[in-house]
Each structure stands twice: as structure tokens, then as C-alpha cells.
Amino acid sequence: MSLSSSPIIGSAGVVEPGFCQYEMTICSCEEIINEFEMLTRDAGRVQQETLKKILEANADAEYLTRFGLDGRTDAESYKSCIPLCVHSDVEPFIQRVADGDSVPVLTGQPITSLSLSSGTTQGKPKFLPFNDELLENTLQVFRTSYAFRNREYPIGKGKALQFVYGSKQVSTEGGILATTATTNLYRSPRYKEGMKGIQSQGCSPDEVIFGPDFHQSLYCHLLCGLIYSDEVHSVFSTFAHSLVHAFQTLEEVWEDLCADIRDGVLSEKITAPSIREAVSNILTPNPELADSIYKKCMGLSNWYGVIPALWPNAKYVYGIMTGSMEPYLKKLRHYAGQLPLVSADYGASEGWVGSNIDPTLPPEQVTYAILPHTGYFEFIPLEKPTGEETESSASIHYIESEPVGLTEVEVGKIYEVVLTTFAGLYRYRLGDIVKIADFHNSTPKLEFICRRSLVLSINIDKNTEKDLQIAVEEAAKLLEGEKLEIVDFTSYVEKSTDPSRYVVFWELSSETSDEVLSGCANALDLAFLDAGYMGSRKIKTIGPLELRILRKGTFREILVHFLSLGGAVSQFKTPRCVSPANSKVLQILNKNVTQSYFSTAYGL
Ligand code: AMP
After folding, report:
1. Band of residue 16 on the pLDDT scale cut at 50, 70, 90
2. Please, which residues have CB within 8 angstroms of residue 457's CB and are 6 or more apart in sequence?
3. Chain-wide mean pLDDT for the chain?
4. Which of 98, 160, 282, 295 could form a disulfide with 200 if both were Cys (CB 3.0 to 4.6 A apart)?
């Protein structure tokens, strides 16, 4: 196998960053891994070259000139001139791009697309710049993890069952196209071309991916996946949440799917003409296949192992499974049976961070290796203040020190990620906390810990998304003997009472006794181990935790609400804490509460 083009070697003798080095269609996994090895062996130098490249290309951008960088491209000048920033600092600049400002605002070359971040972690979607270089970086990250994955789980020329969904594209005042980051990728011809060599062809036609109605798209993804069931070699969605959602839907619609396949006629529920036409073209009567699917579904015990049963040649299930996706792992494992779960890469609408190069590790142990030519990375060291140590590491309110470079991080330490991208973000705080798990050559491998923002805080208590997740897992142990599970959860700080209190919302797969649920409310209250919370509960400056049980389907209603705001299913993350500003979500939650239980754990 030969390279279509040699890596572009810069003056410093390293691969020039930001460009696709190989034509994927003819490049072997071995070559991709070799390139990765070469780049990561010299990560420090590649980082300096990458920064230089970014700053040279964008030397005229107003964002850089107004801080007086004056065309300098070295790390010291960059760090001393350009301050760390958060999204609200760059928002006015991004707005000018959206409004069509003709001067170079953030990048030397005009930005022609914007990405809309999911907004589900922070409540409201954010606009972010998107350009060709970001797309190439995405391909680099994807091809790297693919090469490592394919070495362990080789897949032939089969198909991929992909639960992917585009979202609406809107044009801003200045005529810039804006849509979710994933849609920007899926719509790009370059992305499709670049993915050819690293991803099997999807089962569904584009009309299903870009269909106007998510429910109809999901139904047809399942249908197309079943039509090609023997050819499917991998099952994918961006996040574990949408994988679980897909198979929960299969449980409900499997008989309709069998009927469609048996008769070769698409269900009347599919009304979108574009989807109807495209799917009808591949649907022919196949009673034999319908019977076999029917039999397999009937033979399953509580849908355990449905994925390998219906897609017998699938080698693995793939999607982001770390961080806020961990709560869905149990259910996903149930559907996947013995099939390996492989966590997909780590990135954001802002830019990609790392590739999973250890595909055989269970998702709970996955780390992400940084590709040093995809951006310039800094890390803000976070330290635990002495005396505040509790068992839950995430609940610590960290002390920050000066950011360090990619090769200066230390194994075992915790940092916030700071990105400088080819798309015009400079020293941008991503808001994610990571732990350095290891190094691969001289590039770090990151363990995703959680979003930095606190989700639950009333006075001196500080609890993150991770703390809430740990508390919910702890309390869920009481449900194990009851044969029921938590479908999804979120939380809220109830400030209308004095003292204020935490409210945790649970949607359960079935009903259980008041006794069990009262026990769960107590267990939740006791599972927040942050000293501030425990202290405040003891002296009653925080009231008893309330567990509110929701009607089945509540979280689907929340998903549909996010989609109505322009979000994409592919990027949806359940908001783990609802702020009062998010009144519509609160309204959905509160109207669906069926029971409520107050903790008595710290006395009445
Ligand atoms: P988005 O709003 O869709 O751009 O979401 C980006 C955020 O999703 C990141 O900042 C992370 O908090 C989270 N995320 C992305 N990839 C992963 C991953 N592999 N593991 C855990 N969290 C992730």
C-alpha cells in the first residue's frame, strides 16, 4: 500500500499541521498509525509548529491584532499577549462574523459556516466558527481512532448501522450557514469523501439522515439496518444516549418494522415525502427476513443481546460513552450482550481534543490521546485545596495555576482544557476537567472527568455533574432487587422554600413501592459527599433532598423540546441540572411528576 502523497514536511522537519496528509481511500491503518507515532514522538515541537501555523494564517485577524500580537508566532509572545477566554468573551466577535463583517475578525480567511453547540450542558446553544481546517482535523482524529480500532476489530466492506441525524441549516443576517457541528460534517462532501476509507457505508440514504422529523428518521434507520442486517459490521451513534434511545424505540416498533419488511410497504407513519421515496426504493417484500427478525425478537429475554441477535456480523458498538454518557452504559451493555462497546473520540463543537487509541478498553477506562497537530493545547492545573478533601474527587472546588503546555502536564494531575484552533478560537477555556492518565510517546492521554461547571450549589456546597451521577448510581443500588432501572435523571435547586433544597428527578422503567423510593431519597441525600453539602444539611441551612418521580416518556419530551430549538439528536445530552431560566424544561418536568419523596436522612 503506498501513500498518495507524502506528509508535508515543514521547515522544522515536522509534519505541517492542519492539512490532510493522506488520501484515506488508499491509506492503510498501518500508515495512519505510523504517522500518529511520528507526530506524537515529537509532540512538543509539533505543538510549536502548529501554533506558528495558526498564528501565521490568522496574523491579520482583529482578535489577535487588538491584543498587540504584531504577527509574532512564538508561544511566549502568544501567551503574554492573548488572554485566556470563555465563550462570552468571543461571542461579540462571532456575532460580527454571523452578521457578515467583511474584515478578518477571528481568522485570516473568511469563515463561511458556524456551528451550533448542543447547548444541553449549559442551557443555551452557542455559535462557534467552523471551517475547512476544523473539518480536516476531525478527519484526522477519526481516522486515527479508526486505524487503532480496525487493528483490533477488523471490519471488511460491510455496512454501518448509524443512528445519525442532521439538523436544520439556517442562514445568519450576514448569509453565513449555521447548523450543529455534526450536521456541518455530515453535509460536507469533503467529509463524506474523507470518511469513505475509514467508515463503512451507512445503511440509510441521506434523506433519512436529513429528514424533517427525527422520529421518522429513527424508524427508518432501524428499518434500513434490518434490511441490510447481514451486512452490518458496526453500530454507531455520536453519543451513547442516542444508541439507547434507538433500541428502546426498537422495542416499541419492532412488529411494525417486521410488517413493513414482510409486505415491502413502508408504514403510513412515515409521512415525509423525501424519506418515503428514498426508503421505499430499497424496501421490497421479504417475508423470510421478516419471519426471522420476528422469531429472534420473540426469543429474546427482556431484549438482552438484541444487537448481536439482529445484526449477527456486527463487531462492535461505537459512540461516545464517557462523561455524561456513562449512565447509559448499563442499558447499552444489556442491548449489546457480548458485543464490545467502544467509546468514540473526545471533542466539541469548538474543536477535537483526542482519539481513543485503546479500543479494547471498557468505556469506563477509556482515555483520549491528543493529536498534537490538530490545534494548540494548554492545560490549567487544578488543585484540591487542603482540608477540603472528600471521597468524591469531582466535588472539589479547585485552585487554579498558570496554564502549562501539552508536554508539560503530569500524570495523575487534573486540568481544565484550553484550546487554540484553526477556526479562530484563541486560548479558549473548554470548561472540561480531565485527568492525565498516561503518555503515548510525548503526547498525553486524557481521562474525561466532567464539565467544570457546578450543577448543584446553594451556599457552600459544590457538586458537579459527576457528583450527581455518583449519587444517583449509589441510590440506584436500592433498585437492583426490584427489576427496574432509572431511564434518565436530572436535578434542580429549589429556592422557593427556606431553606433551599436539592430536587432530583427520576424517570423509572416501571413502578415500585413508596418504601423503596423513600429509601432512595435518603440514599441520594447521603450520597452527596461534598463537605459543604453534608455540613449544610446537618445544620439545616439546606433542606431535605426531594426525589420526584416522573411519568414514562418525560425525557423524550425534553429531547423533542431541544430539537424544536434547533438542536440535533446526534449531539443531545440530557441537562443534568435545570436552571430556573430553562422554564420550558422545568414545566415539562413538573407537569409529569407522579410522586415525590423527601429525605429523612439528616432528621426532620
Ligand atoms: P457539544 O456541545 O456538542 O459541542 O459538546 C461538547 C462537549 O461534550 C465537550 O466539551 C464534553 O463536555 C462532551 N464530550 C465530548 N466528547 C466527549 C467524550 N468522549 N467523553 C466525555 N464527554 C465528551
Report:
1. very low
2. 463, 493
3. 90
4. 160
Query: Environment class of residue 83 by beta-carbon count within 10 Å: exposed (0-12), middle (13-18) or buried (19+)?
Result: exposed
For residue range 403-426, list pLDDT tens digits in order. Answer: 999 999 999 999 999 999 999 999
User: Is the pLDDT reported for residue 391 higher than 90?
Assistant: no
- The pLDDT value recorded for residue 384 is 77
Pocket of ligand 1 (CB under 6 A): 117-118, 181, 320, 322-323, 346-349, 430, 432, 448, 451, 571
Residue minimizing CA distance to atom 22 of ligand 1? 323
Reported as a pLDDT band with limits 50, 70 and 90, residue 192 is: confident
Return the residue whose CA atom lies nearest to atom 6 of ligand 1: 348
Contact in structure between 121 and 451 (CB atoms under 8 Å)? yes
Encode burial over 262-299: b for 16+ CB neighbours within 10 A, e otherwise: beeebbeebebeebbebbeeebeebeebbebbbebbee
For residue 214, report the distance from its CA to the centre of ligand 1, in Å.
22
Among 322, 465, 565, the mutation site with the greatest number of ligand 1 atoms within 8 A of its Cβ is 322
What distance in angstroms lies between residue 469's CA and the mean position of ligand 1's atoms? 16
> What residue's CA is closest to ligand 1, atom 3?
118
How crowded is the C-beta side of 87, counted as CA atoms within 13 Å?
Answer: 15
Give the integer Cα–Cα distance in Å for 344 and 321: 7
Bridge partners, residue 451, by sequence: 432
Backbone angles phi, psi at 432, to 5 degrees: -105, 140
Give residue 193's pLDDT. Answer: 82
Burial 484-505 (b: 16+ CB within 10 A, else e): eebbbbbbbbbeeeebbbbbbb
Please choose, from the candidates 391, 226, 199, 238, the residue with its C-alpha nearest in 3D space to the C-alpha of residue 328. 238
Q: What residue owns the CA closest to ligand 1's atom 7?
A: 348
**How confident is residue 126, by pLDDT bands cut at 50, 70 and 90?**
confident
Q: Which of 345, 432, 451 has most ligand 1 atoms within 8 Å of CB, for mutation?
A: 432
Residue nearest to atom 16 of ligand 1 (CA): 346
In terms of DSSP bridges, do strands 501-508 and 546-550 run parallel, antiparallel, or are they unpaired?
parallel
Give the pLDDT confidence of 327-362 residue by residue, as tens digits: 999 999 999 999 999 999 999 999 999 999 999 999
* 8 A C-beta contact, residue 410 and residue 10: no
Q: Which residue, by CA, sits nearest to atom 9 of ligand 1?
A: 348
Asked whether residue 296 carries a pLDDT value surpassing 90, the answer given is yes
